């Protein structure tokens, strides 16, 4: 949640000191590797930071320890001897980032107390009713600061529905559904709608305006995806989504439309929301789902690039008329149910063997 702008200067000073500690860990790690051919752990790096808080830095040892742990984790994740330096100045400076451990931030009287600062925030979540955990304070490209903290979520009502839903993701139609009572969702052109205004601001070299438009696009897309994924996770007991490869399609001629759709973000949201609501979620192979008749199984649908513009077709095998996206969603649902059914005998046999 967003921190009020009056704290920006204090947080910028803290972020500068965090960058200094990060770069120290980066340089020290390289020296140890060159001398001993090994990488120091986060705990070992913390030992070299003892007493650093007495050198006039604006952050304390708790933050230093978290920076060292985060550095060791990211170096192991990326498998590199040296990570990128964090810059505090210049055109390509690193955005502000201040990590903290659990109990480092205390909520009191409507403010977040951190390292001697009383941070006023727009509390849209109601943090007063939660126990705060670890997190970060981060800056976006517009110079706005945000408090990102983990909390223990309250118990949610489990979904009791037994209905299954297949979802076919696309560009003409963002989501085609197997359930006929649910209308297909048309593609939302978040980037395309604001592209003329963005191009105008870029030509006029209005950098602040460009950043504001990009932020508006991202916020509109996130709002749409959150609302749709939440609604589906509350209404269905099992959800199956096609495994369309967004990363590969983003390299083609429809790259802007693919990135604008946000397929990967939507699937990620669905996955964790289904897990929280007790809904079965799975990504299934969608190969030939739009070409196969969901009634008779014949592969008589439109094929190839020429067939992409055909939105409705009639099966020559059984005579059924299909909406392209809804038919694909039905096939995805059938594949998901088959996979789920195949797993049941295996689990039963395993239980019998253990018993």
What are the defining features of this structure?
single chain, 355 residues, alpha+beta, five-stranded mixed sheet, three-stranded antiparallel sheet, 9 helices, 13 strands, disordered C terminus
Q: Helix tally?
A: 9
Main beta sheet: 5 strands, mixed
Strand content: 15-25%
Shape: elongated
Range of helix content:
40-55%
Structural class: alpha+beta
Distance between the termini: 50 Å
**Rg, alpha carbons:** 26 Å
| Mean pLDDT score | 85
Number of domains: 2
Spatial ordering of strands, largest sheet? 9-8-7-10-11
Number of strands: 13
Stretches with pLDDT under 50, minimum 5 residues: 343-355
Order of helices and strands: HHHEEEEEEEEEHHEHHHEEEH
Question: How would you explain this protein's 3D organization?
Answer:
With 355 residues, the protein is an alpha+beta fold. It folds into 2 domains: 5-151, no CATH class; 164-354, no CATH class. It contains 9 helices and 13 strands. The chain has a 5-stranded mixed sheet with strand order 9-8-7-10-11, sandwiched between helices. The chain has a 3-stranded antiparallel sheet with strand order 1-5-6. The longest helix has 31 residues, at 324-354. The two termini are 50 Å apart. The relative contact order is 0.09.
What topology emerges from the helices and strands here?
Layout: H1 8-36, H2 42-47, H3 61-78, E1 97-100, E2 106-108, E3 111-114, E4 117-120, E5 132-139, E6 145-151, E7 164-169, E8 173-177, E9 185-186, H4 190-203, H5 207-235, E10 238-242, H6 246-249, H7 255-261, H8 263-277, E11 280-284, E12 312-314, E13 321-323, H9 324-354
Parallel strand pairs: 7-10, 10-11
Antiparallel strand pairs: 1-5, 2-3, 3-4, 5-6, 7-8, 8-9, 12-13
Helix pairs in contact: 1-3, 4-5, 5-8
């Amino acid at each position: 949640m967003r921190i009020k702008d009056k704290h920006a200067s204090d947080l910028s000073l803290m972020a500068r000191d965090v960058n200094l500690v990060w770069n120290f860990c980066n340089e020290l790690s390289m020296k140890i590797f060159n001398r001993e051919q090994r990488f120091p752990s986060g705990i070992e790096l913390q030992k070299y930071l003892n007493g650093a808080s007495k050198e006039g830095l604006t952050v304390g040892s708790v933050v230093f320890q978290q920076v060292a742990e985060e550095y060791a984790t990211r170096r192991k994740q990326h498998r590199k001897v040296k990570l990128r330096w964090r810059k505090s100045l210049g055109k390509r400076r690193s955005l502000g980032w201040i990590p903290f451990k659990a109990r480092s931030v205390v909520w009191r009287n409507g403010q977040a107390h951190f390292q001697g600062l009383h941070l006023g925030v727009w509390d849209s979540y109601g943090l007063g009713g939660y126990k705060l955990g670890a997190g970060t304070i981060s800056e976006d490209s517009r110079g706005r600061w945000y408090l990102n903290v983990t909390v223990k979520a309250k118990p949610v009502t489990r979904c009791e529905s037994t209905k299954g839903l297949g979802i076919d993701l696309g560009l003409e139609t963002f989501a085609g559904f197997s359930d006929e009572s649910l209308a297909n969702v048309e593609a939302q052109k978040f980037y395309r709608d604001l592209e003329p205004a963005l191009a105008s601001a870029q030509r006029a070299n209005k950098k602040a305006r460009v950043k504001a438009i990009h932020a508006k696009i991202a916020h509109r897309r996130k709002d749409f995806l959150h609302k749709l994924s939440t609604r589906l996770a509350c209404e269905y007991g099992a959800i199956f989504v096609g495994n369309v490869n967004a990363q590969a399609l983003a390299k083609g001629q429809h790259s802007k439309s693919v990135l604008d759709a946000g397929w990967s973000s939507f699937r990620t949201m669905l996955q964790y929301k289904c897990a929280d609501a007790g809904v079965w979620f799975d990504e299934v192979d969608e190969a030939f789902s739009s070409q196969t008749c969901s009634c008779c199984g014949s592969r008589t649908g439109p094929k190839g690039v020429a067939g992409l513009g055909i939105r409705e077709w009639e099966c020559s095998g059984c005579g059924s008329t299909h909406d392209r996206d809804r038919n694909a969603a039905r096939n995805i649902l059938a594949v998901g149910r088959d996979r789920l059914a195949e797993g049941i005998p295996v689990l039963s046999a395993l239980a019998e063997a253990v018993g």
